[in-house]
Structures are given as C-alpha cells and as structure tokens.
Amino acid sequence: MKRTDTAARPGLPRRIWRFLASPSGVISVGVLAFGGFAAGVLFWGGFHTALEMTNNEQFCISCHEMKDNVYAEYQGTIHQNNASGVRATCPDCHVPKEWGPKMLRKIKASKELYGHFVTQSIWTEQKFNEKRIDLAANEWARMKSNDSHECRNCHNFGFMDFTLQENRAAADHQTAIDGGKTCIDCHQGIAHDLPANYLDRYREVVTDLENRGVIPRASQPEVAAVSAFVGETRLD
Amino acid sequence: MKKLAFLGALALPAIVVAGLALAQSAAETGAGVKSLRGVQPDVELDVEPVFHQEKQRFVRNYRLQPPLIPHSIDKYQIDMRANECLACHDWKNAGNRGAPTLSMTHYTDRDGIQTENVASRRWFCNQCHVPQADAPALVENLFHSLGQ
C-alpha cells in the first residue's frame, strides 16, 4: 500500500531521537542504571585493552618498516642495552602517556597506516633512508615543542646527581638548565641513526617553531647591555 | 593373545623410564655435546674484567701526537652520514658547547684548499683520536717521551 501522508511520518533522525528520548516502558531503573554502569566499565576496559595492544614494541615491529630499520638500529643503544636492564621501548618515547595527547597521537598515526598500505612511502631501506631526515625532523619538532616530555617521564633534572656524572656532562646539564634548553637540543639520534646534515636540519626545525610562535624565541645576547658593561660604543 | 598384550602394557612404562634414565646420564656426562664457547657447558667461565674510561686531560707523549679523548665515546655515531663529535668540536659549535675546537689543519683538504667544513680525510676522528682505559698494557712498551 502506498503511503500518501508523508508529512505525518517524521524523518529518520527525528525518529531515532524520539526513540532515545522516550522513557523505557519495560526495563527497571535499576537495570538501566547498574546495567548501564557495568556496560560502561566493560566497554571502557575493552577499549583500553585494545588501545594498549597497539601501544607496545611487538605491535610496532609487526610492520617490516619498523622492524628492519628503526628497531634494528635501536639494538645496542643505551635504551635497549645497559647496566641495569631497564629498557625504554618504542611507545615510551614516541607516544605520550597522558590520555588526551595519546589519543591525538593515535589519530595522527592513522597516516602511518596510509603510508604503509597505500603509498608505501618507506617500504624499502632506500626509501626509508631518503625520508629519514624528514621523519627525524617530525620527532625533533614534537620533542622541542613539548619540552622533551617523553624523555622527562623518566629523566628529570630535579633528581639528577651531577656529582655522579662525567664532569663535562654535569657542566653541560647546568648550562642547559640555566639556558632553558631541552633534552633534544643536544641528544639527537640516541636510539636511531642520524642522517647527513642532521644538525643543520635540527636548527631549521627550531627556527621554524620559533617563527610560528610554538616555542618562545631563544634569548639573544643583549649587545647594548654588554657594550655598556665593557664600556664600548656600538659600531652600527 | 590377551595375555601378551597385558604383559606388553606392563613392560611399556619400564621401557620408557629406562630410556629417560639413559638420556639423563648421557646429558650429565656431556657426551657428544659441543659448546660454541669452547668448553663444556658445565664449566664456569670467568667474566673478563671491564676497564673504565679515564677522564683526565692527557699530556702528549710526543709533539704531534693526536690528543687523547678524555671522555667516553661509546655509541657515538661516526659514519658516512653523520659525525656526532662535530656537534661539539666543529669550529661552528665549539664556542657554544665549551669544547676544544678541531685543529685548523683539519679544514684543509688534500689539495691544500681551506674548507668551511671538516675535510673528508679528517672525518673519521677515531682513526687518530682514541679514548683511554685504565687497562694493563697488552704488549710490553719501551717508549720514552723526549720531553720526559
């Protein structure tokens, strides 16, 4: 039978809204409240478990791009092989621990799936090495703009005993604190190989972040103040 | 026939146990087992002593001696792509990092032309510059410095 009164039947969104908004006629409040709570716990637990399954070293190296390049280079570095046997695995450095930033990083990572399955942009060792400096620059930019947050999950200036460090390390760390430096300013390439001209590219990354206002501009020595101090006139 | 099967069933566990015992004794004596480290697996090997990096500045033993490295260089990348030593010791960085600058001879290529970046023949620092450990000498050395 053909319907003639189309005006009487509301659209799909409105029908769904009416269904959700109308009170339940058959289910008790107890079932709705506690059942809903239990379902929520199960859903959240399941979501979190599934998320953590994509957040460990074994998952990362299930793609050959990671296993044959960055994971192979990571072998024998200080974060994989050291006196105490404590290890920092891929997500410890590359995925934030806090929930919000972690979700953002996971969403951004969908581009990596696109690169793996569709464009195959780092499919071979040669392709990977061609893109290495760009990939590294991404990580440098991330670490520079969040004050090396993932390093600082474990390494904290406040708990470093400078007297136990090599003299030059202790002196440089003090300089870093005084000058507002962050870990990645000096410690590039600690877990993976560095590409050619890495330091020039790192400086470009920092300048770019400063120009975009992501990080405050590094303080320049104040020529006028220095000149006044040493009693010279500026020659310009 | 039934009797035979019954006897066989009784004998089976005994055979298995005897086989296991034989295998166990073979493993205990290590007969036929060759270890890759050259000794039998049940022989304890001493771990070689680890000698640590010396961190003072060294006096040169002769006038043109390449200076020794007074810090650890473990895991520093020096290869075709990158040279991490230059992050502090290149003339462009040494001032900021409070590190000694490379000798200016290292910025002259084999044709005698002065270069902005370190000459490629000087790229591999640890061909000449090495760190020192407080280890006993491997061979007898009768060298005496002229200056001493």
From TrEMBL, chain A:
InterPro entries registered for this protein in UniProt: Cytochrome_c-type_ET (IPR051174), Multihaem_cyt_sf (IPR036280), NapC/NirT/NrfH (IPR024717), NapC/NirT_cyt_c_N (IPR005126), NapC/NirT_cytc_sf (IPR038266)
Record protein name field: Cytochrome c-type protein
Segments passing through the bilayer: 20-47
Cofactor requirement: heme
Binding residues annotated for heme 3, in chain numbering: 151, 154-155
Role summary: Mediates electron flow from quinones to the NapAB complex.
GO molecular function: electron transfer activity; heme binding; metal ion binding
Binding site for heme 2: 90, 93-94, 192
Subcellular location per the Swiss-Prot or TrEMBL entry: Cell membrane
Lineage: Bacteria, Pseudomonadati, Pseudomonadota, Alphaproteobacteria, Rhodobacterales
Record GO cellular component, one term: plasma membrane
Annotated residues for binding of heme 4: 183, 186-187
Membrane-topology descriptor: Single-pass membrane protein
The keyword Ribosomal protein appears for this protein: no
Automatic annotation (TrEMBL), chain B:
InterPro entries linked to this entry: Multihaem_cyt_sf (IPR036280), NapB (IPR005591)
Superkingdom assignment: Bacteria
One term under GO cellular component: periplasmic space
Amino-acid positions noted as binding heme c 2 in the UniProt annotation, renumbered to this chain: 106, 125, 128-129
Signal sequence coordinates: 1-23
Main location: periplasm
Sequence intervals crossing the membrane: none
Record's keyword annotation contains Ligase: no
Cellular localization per UniProt: Periplasm
UniProt PTM: Binds 2 heme C groups per subunit.
One annotated GO molecular function: metal ion binding
Keywords: Electron transport, Heme, Iron, Metal-binding, Periplasm, Signal, Transport
Example of a GO biological process term: anaerobic respiration
Quaternary structure and partners: Component of the periplasmic nitrate reductase NapAB complex composed of NapA and NapB.
Similarity section: Belongs to the NapB family.
Entry protein name: Periplasmic nitrate reductase, electron transfer subunit
Annotated source species: Cereibacter ovatus
